[in-house]
Amino acid sequence: MSDTKNIRNIAIIAHVDHGKTTLVDSIFQKTGAFRDNQQVNVRVLDSNPQERERGITIFSKNAAAVYKDHKINIVDTPGHADFGGEVERILQMVDGVLLLVDAFEGPMPQTKFVLRKALELHLKPIVVINKIDRPQSDPVKVHDQVLDLFIALGAEEHQLDFPYIFTSAKNGIAKYSMDDEDGDMSLLLDIIIKEIPAPVAEDDGGFQMLVTTLDYSDYIGKIAIGRIHRGKVSPGSQLVVVSPDGIVGKGTVTKVFQFDKVQKIEAKEATSGDIIAIAGIPDATVGLTLASVDDPVSLDSFEISKPTLSMLFSVNDSPFAGLEGKEVTSRKIRERLMKEVMTNVALNVEETDSADTFRVSGRGELHLSVLIETMRREGYELAIARPEVIMHYDEQGTMLEPIEHVTIDIPEEYTGVIIEKMGRRKAEMIHMGTLRGGMVRVEFEIPTRGLIGYNLEFTTDTKGEGIMSHVFINYQPFKGKLPSRETGALVVSETGICVAYSLSALEDRGTFFVSPNTKVYAGMIVGESTRGLDITMNVCKTKKLSNMRSSGTDESLRLTPPKILSLEQALEFINDDELLEVTPLSIRLRKKLLDPNARARATKKANA
Fold this sequence. Notes:
alpha+beta; 11-stranded mixed sheet; 8-stranded antiparallel sheet
């Protein structure tokens, strides 16, 4: 064993939208990762198109910066609770964390979740209080709240004496105290080098690396990412895959990559303490150890959190099937889902009694909707059923369901309606307090079932001004039946093209999701009814022309603009007897049974 290395391995952890990826941008700007005249995207690590569109980090990313002869390996983790499975694993790779907290919002549910994990692993925390330029922010008060959180989570005495810094990542400003002059990100980098422990060099023993993330390339196959615990590795090295029960696979390393700025670069050799990516080991799996053939010892692994929500993915069997997508068969869908499971380990795919249907389980609606959106962009057509919560049973046979901790920030005038709606969904209020600027923070514990389909309603109830975030906490006894969607659907009675004349005549029946000239089929849902019952209607009916009626008067029709649903909104809207048809060009809602007589018989049977 020799001296420590000039390497620092850190993860950036925070609640969603507190500025992790923007902070990485500022660090890169300070370390000269980009040329002066180089065109650089904002949030350079958010390379996935969906990450840019949604403005959140979905996949953890590895990057590296060089500062004062030290290599700083940075891991940017997702902040949304649905991708918490990524964060739990990433913390195994690093020696310290930057805990990022918004100077206005303070610690949020995901902040508590990721900090608890970091403290359990005895990682060195550096608290970064970000967005100090935000109006009505109170950085000093937030610092006190973070200290209270450390105490509440049972931090050890030395962890309570955490270093902290105030920043505005967007403006590249950092300072040790709010009274100081504005400094730059070099202050933060100095703290990282000083406070984060360096890995100890263990280059002499047999190679060991715990696999924490997987990537996949069509050219070189599966890529295992992790931190070298001991030894060295180079292309051509013979490695075995070791589980606690013994050797489960072997292979020859074809390529070794190290991280430089935001790219992977090939390396001739890598040594202990560095974060690397290895290709050529097809049996590599998250949580298992890669080790040298002559010393196959397993490292302490970690538990991957179980999925809480599942959906049925089926072959699209609507009348418009195969018109817009190129991948429509069950074999193609199965291949794609199995490929996803190889790298997305928080996902679970099971075959069902039907060869055309697969049960896909994940950590939440967003986790699964990102997969659906990715598949539709790749040309797949799917039929998706309503999300279902995964129940568990304890030793006594009691049914348990997942419970979420929900934090809601809303203007004061909406407090009453939100508390009433949450109460109907079996939520229990555990805290209520006021924030600056006339905002109120309310915290609940609610069954995961109660959140399915609530986002759309929440946005309407708060006029788009509310912020809701949630994180899974535990399983509790089943809370009883919850209210389903209170409105019915507007269902098409015959196949054809929507006509403005019909839509205008039927406007009083509800809110439409389609505009004139949209192709529809019998059994397709085109709107939300104002009543609690489904209404079957003909939206393709044209005006009968005669010497009394001319087609010209149609030009004076004034239609209410349709309510176009996004993928998440459509998933929230559908009921148990409905499906979501997803194609590369369209998102359609439909009844499972397209024939109105079959639907009537099924409803009668269910009521009986």
